[in-house]
Fold this sequence. Notes:
Radius of gyration: 22 Å
Mean pLDDT: 87
Structural class: alpha+beta
Number of strands: 5
Oligomer: single chain
Helix content: 40-55%
Strand order of the largest sheet: 2-1-5-4-3
Distance between the termini: 44 Å
Order of helices and strands: HHHHHHEEHHHHHHEEEH
Amino acid sequence: MDGDLGDFLRSRRARIQPEEVGLASHGRRRVPGLRREEVAQLAGVSVDYYIRLEQGRGPGGTSRTKSGGVSDAVLDAIARVLRLDETEHAYLHTVARPPKKTGRRRAASRVRPGVQLLLDTMDRAPAFVLGPGMDVLAWNALADAVSGFSRMPPARRNIARQLFLEPGGRELYPDFAAIAAQTVAHLRLSASTRPDDAGVRDLVGELSLKSEDFRRLWADHQVKACMYGVKRIQHPAAGLLTLPYESLTLPESPDQTMVIYTPEPGSETAERLALLGSWATAH
Length: 283
């Protein structure tokens, strides 16, 4: 998305103090963190080169690759100066040299019948499949009992949209602030690899327009691959559920991710899920 590279670099240098990288801080600074000139100095590139890179005008000079993008060496040096973690480092490479736009609209993602059968065999673990932009593509009965996917209109069946826009989305998560930040960070990472995905662009536009929480978090330029962790869900009937989760990318469909909640056996959450499962089967 336009401006991602410059905004990301500015947000990252703003969080680093000169003293952290061995620079003396003289007097009051107009902006927080490192100046562009300091990043350029520490990365071993010219100031003009770095400014052009941050402004998205193309650095020029001899450090360009044959394909016309910024060299790995320059990006790696900047990542080192800005103390980027592994995910942020990969994101920097992606937004500095975004995938070529195809101009073709992505076909709707479909889950293979075998994947749906696999979901249905997990009768004690809520599981579902996410597509690009966190669209919910498939689920099992227990995941539906927990999150109510079948009650959402198909065109609006999306994790980020449920969290920020749907009635009750905020109340569903006791740790809303943390879950919201993780969701936006994951969505930004996903969007960076699909610059011509109209569905993802439209989702970001809708959320930016309608949710102040989303706008604020999107402006932070956090990026994170949320492949495992713990979510707490306040279910209206079952009460509080503490749900560790694992995410697996499907081998034959790399744009699809299966998310599986794995409650501790014998825990109160496992017992509550068993009751939910019995209720779902009965109805």
